[in-house]
Amino acid sequence: MSKNLVIVESPAKAKTIQKYLGKDFEVKSSFGHIRDLPKKGMGIDLATFSPDYEVSADKKKLVTELKAAVKKAEMVWLASDEDREGEAIAWHLADELKLKPENRKRIVFHEITKNAILKAIENPRDIDQNLVNAQQARRVLDRIVGFEMSPVLWKKVKPGLSAGRVQSVAVRLIVEREKEIREFAPKASFKLDGIFLNKTEQEIAAKLKKDFEKEEDAEKFLEKAKTTEFKVLNVETKPGTRSASAPFTTSTLQQEASSRLGYNVTNTMRLAQRLYEEGYITYMRTDSVNLSQEAIEDAKKQITSEYGAEYSSPRNYTTKSASAQEAHEAIRPTDFAVKSIGDAQLNRLYQLIYRRTLASQMANAKIEKTVIEIGNASLPQYFEAQGEVIIFDGFLKAYGIVKTEDDDEENNEKLLPKVSVGEVLSYKKITASEKFTRPSARYTEAGLVKKLEELGIGRPSTYAPTIQTIQNREYVDKREIDPQTREVIRMSLVKDKIKKEVLEEKFGGDKNKFVPTDIGEVVNDFLTDNFKEILDYGFTARVEESFDEIANGDQKWKEMMTNFYSKFHPRIEDVEENADRATGDRLLGVDPKTGKNVHARIGRFGAMIQIGETEDEEKPIFASLMTGQNIATISLAEALELFKLPFELNEFEGQAVSVGVGRFGPYVKWGETFISIPKGEDPLSVGQARAEEIINEKKKADAPIATYKGDPVTKGTGRFGPFIKYKDIFVNVPKRYNFDNLSQSDINELIDAKLEKEANRYIQQWEKEKISIENGRWGPFVKFGKAMFKIPKKKDDTKYDAEELKDVSLDEVKKWITDQDKNAFAEKKKPAAKKTAAKKTTAVKKTAAKKK
């Protein structure tokens, strides 16, 4: 057995490190945190803010294995990452594995190379409790905010919602940008472009230096230009330079990978993690743009050998952010001699990092800018042509140029013909085009990361999970927004004649940008109205600064928590008691048929339209909004169209056919089967022929693909991915199977495993009472209807095992349920039949699509 045990977070990292250490070292992985706050309950003593950490059920076996390995080792080396999260992992390991200070050493490295690992072994340190406390402060504060704010949302908005310190601020940014776009009033002006010719008929494209607000002013200018002799008024040529950007930080890597490679933030971080763990790049979570002297020297050698000495310009960059976390390097290659790697997807990101790092150590690009002024003293404004020539490409040789969405549409990188002052030019064409001002663009993932970083909200490790969370919670999405159409005027002066045209222009369309959902807007408005400080950008940034101070040892974390909670909790109580319910209600107008008000609002199943008031004797009627519609923008006419759904069609093959819209979108209902209408298709346009087409497509898709023990097996794709269906059993198909070409042995294997799992699911079952004792992921539990209940400990304070639970009586189980919910069995006796009957229409409409 090895004398030394090294514990890292990931198996990939363990595998790479094991290569560099001899037989005296064994490297094992903790697979991230081995313990955390409990999944159920807050897990924090609010009097002292002491966390109640526990080893999760899926890590118990691993912890047992690590404890066994620790007993056999003379020294344990804790080698998790050198950031707050990594330090906390090391601390939890030391505590849970009961490592004594004399038998443990903490080692850190920024890159997984042989030199870095051996150097870390030679320079161990102890666990940095300040970094651990900073991580604990973040974890505890975010748990408290989430656990106390979320129930307020359940009560005041809709069950099942969540709030979070950083996620809610990210949603606020997206909601505010959307409101800004909606309220934006575009202003029109006329921009003039001219194409001029010199004596040798070479073209010079130029722009008039002033825009005209009115059409008639632009037209007057064109009239005057008809008879004007255009001359070169001035030519100015001056040298300029372009310098390379600093090496990548986490944030800039995410932004550049998005614009150059089209990678989302989560994918970028997943690939960067692999590159780091396999030893290709330095640590990928960093705020620093600093490079080590060794890296600068290595880059210099590579640049000199590949491009020549004139391209080398070694330099170091300093981090502008005062809150940059931990003294890491920027993200860079560990070995500049490695120019590419085998895996295609990894290589694309590696190449980006490699070229950016090289470029940061290369000479500035030298350019020559030329500006030509064209006009006549008789004209009130002159045209200007701009050109740019690269004299020496410098860093551009390695990195090139990429345009961003904020760049001007026109590219100045063009060569202008030689002209002299006073030279007469003729115009080929002068165009006056009506242009409208545009609102700020919606956020891309990269844009949102940039904004969060600018505001000091979150840190490198939080950007990807935050962006993922707000999408998972369905507060924002990236749905495609169809463009609108408007008329624009264009006047062209060609050969002394002015031609006027009215053209159509599309505007306002978007895709792959963040748009808030209805529930996202309602939740945001409720939180900003009632928790102004928590949603305040400055406050969120100040909290991050407090974490930095704790990490530096300048503040005690529990004091920070006490100060925060003393203001936060009273606000929670006040809002819970006094705030009004939030539904995002918007009065659209009056229904011409009934004379009743038409509202758009959030209901139990999401955004909906309501005709009538809840207090009316005749209950309101409801309709769900369709994909692409939202509460804030839907018109009265569009809302009333929704009440044409559902509608009946003729029977098909002896079964009733109807078209409707439900919780999961528009559908065709055939008998008891709900079939989704393809995305983007208007359900109101679905007639008998189209409905039958949709049904036949469904029948073809649902046709048996095989049999299992004589019964048919079908397949499909649902909310949770691809599945096969046998009798009434749905079996998820993991990615390792080829879903398009499942073999009979694949099908047998999947169904066998599912049946075995189902057979082991129930310890005891009382079908009539809808009560069962079941095996769950975290151990046995009681299920009553859809509700789940804990199994209490025995009198001797030990847990029941599965064998003992087989003998527990139904009465005993009912007592366990009522101990946790006094009204569990009483609810059925409540005389609320009339009330529910009145809402039956809604319930049918809302739940209909759920059966799909």
From TrEMBL:
Keywords: Coiled coil, DNA-binding, Isomerase, Magnesium, Metal-binding, Topoisomerase. The record marks H33, R138, R139, D142, W154, R285, R473 as: Interaction with DNA. The active site is at Y283. The keyword Coiled coil applies. Residues 162-167 are annotated as: Interaction with DNA. It catalyses: ATP-independent breakage of single-stranded DNA, followed by passage and rejoining. CDD domains: TOP1Ac (cd00186), TOPRIM_TopoIA_TopoI (cd03363). It is an enzyme of class 5 (isomerase). Residues 128-572 form the Topo IA-type catalytic domain. It comes from the Bacteria. Its EC number is 5.6.2.1. GO terms for molecular function: DNA topoisomerase type I (single strand cut, ATP-independent) activity. InterPro entries: Topo_IA, Topo_IA_2, Topo_IA_AS, Topo_IA_cen, Topo_IA_cen_sub1, Topo_IA_cen_sub2, Topo_IA_cen_sub3, Topo_IA_core_domain. Residues 3-112 form the Toprim domain. Residues 827-852 are annotated as: Disordered. Residues 198-225 form a coiled coil. The keyword rRNA-binding does not apply. Belongs to the type IA topoisomerase family. NCBIfam families: topA_bact. Releases the supercoiling and torsional tension of DNA, which is introduced during the DNA replication and transcription, by transiently cleaving and rejoining one strand of the DNA duplex. Introduces a single-strand break via transesterification at a target site in duplex DNA. The scissile phosphodiester is attacked by the catalytic tyrosine of the enzyme, resulting in the formation of a DNA-(5'-phosphotyrosyl)-enzyme intermediate and the expulsion of a 3'-OH DNA strand. The free DNA strand then undergoes passage around the unbroken strand, thus removing DNA supercoils. Monomer. This is DNA topoisomerase 1. The lineage of its organism: Bacteria, Pseudomonadati, Bacteroidota, Flavobacteriia, Flavobacteriales. The gene is topA.
